[in-house]
Amino acid sequence: MIKEITAKTLLATVRQPDPWFGLKYNFNLYRGCQHQCIYCDSRSECYQIENFAGEVLVKVNALELLEKELTKKRLKGTIGTGSMNDPYMPLEARLNLTGRALEIIARHAFPVHIITKGTLVLRDLSTLQQISRTYAAVSFTITTADDALSKKLEPGAPPASERFAALRQLSAAGILTGITMMPILPFIEDNEENLRQLVEQAAASGAKYILPGFGLTLRDRQREYYYAKLDQHFPGLKEKYMRAFGERYSAPAQNAKKLGTYFQELCVKSGIATRMPIYQPETATQPKLF
After folding, report:
1. Average pLDDT over every residue of 168-179
2. Alpha-carbon Rg of the chain, whole angstroms?
3. For the chain, which end, N or C, has fewer CB atoms within 10 Å of the first or last residue's CB respectively?
4. Which CATH class is domain 2-275?
5. Running DSSP on this structure, what letter comes out for residue 288?
């Protein structure tokens, strides 16, 4: 179900420094998400999205707010989107809110970083190329190279192979691209073979960086929904989670330190960074790696 709402503000200032994603500002055009990833942290009660499973709220005045707020910003910094929902969920194909927001950002010459699982981002390639004169990055969230597994974990999102293909097209067109490899789910994705396939396909697709996250959060409504899906797709695994993590907020991957070392070795071998190039105002056309 789609419901229209009116927002009071759009751009939020990100706590500094932000070494992971390089953001100064963040915005969300929607509340709720159609990708329905079984692990999504946005189901947590603290975010106050009451009907996350069946409702998407559309901020109908978002573009007007974005124009107004960017006009007032004296300090340029990277604008991020994709933290609370996917800016390229299926609904975006009809509404084009993200596409029109990027056109506004391009006119104001602000840098941008998009995090998505949606291949619809290819529709806005020409706008991203315009923004990239300042700085534009697109990070695809991919945590497994196995399409069948990705369909269980992210049932409303394009399969992993299509995300790699979209990444390849953006990279070939000169857009800075990489992967947010998070969350790596304990007992499901935290193994060397999964990491090897991910890094190899990322390298073959032209990814410049991979940002890893070995584990996931587990709190209130998010845990309840995730455990129900484990029962559906991975019988017996919920009990394993309960024994390993109890009521703890975080659920780290098995042997996270060892996996992290293996991941770093794979990335060095493949020539992929594990920190992304970020926007530097004084050298905006030549972003530098950490």
Report:
1. 98
2. 19
3. N
4. alpha beta
5. B
DSSP string, 152-167: HHSTTSPPHHHHHHHH
Q: How far apart are CA 68 and CA 10, in angstroms?
A: 10
pLDDT digits (tens, 9 = 90+) for 80-139: 999 889 999 999 999 999 999 999 999 999 999 999 999 999 999 999 999 999 999 999
pLDDT value at 288 more than 70: no
User: Do residues 139 and 177 lie in contact, with contact meaning Cβ atoms separated by under 8 Å?
Assistant: yes
Half-sphere exposure of 213 (CA within 13 A, CB side): 16
Q: Which of 30, 42, 34 is nearest to 3 (CA)?
A: 30
| Residue whose pair of structure tokens reads 């992967």 in the numeric block | 179
Q: Quote the pLDDT of residue 84.
A: 86
**C-alpha distances in Å from residue 197, one per residue of 4, 11, 111, 257:** 41, 37, 31, 19
Q: Is 216 in a helix, a strand, or coil?
A: strand
Please state, rounded to an integer, the average pLDDT across all residues of the chain: 93
Between CA 5 and CA 30 the distance in angstroms is: 9
pLDDT band at 210 (very low <50, low <70, confident <90, very high): very high
Query: Are the CB atoms for 19 and 275 separated by under 8 Å?
Result: yes
Residues facing residue 30 across a β-bridge? 58
Structure tokens at 117: 């699982």
Residue with the two structure tokens 């559906």: 232
Q: Which long-range contacts (CB under 8 A, 24 or more apart) does 281-289 make?
A: 281/76, 281/77, 284/111, 284/134, 284/135, 285/133, 285/134, 287/135, 287/176
* CA distances to 75, 86, 116, 209, 235 from 99, in Å: 23, 13, 13, 24, 41
One-letter amino acid of 43: R
Sheet holding 30-31, edge to edge: 2-5, 56-59, 30-31
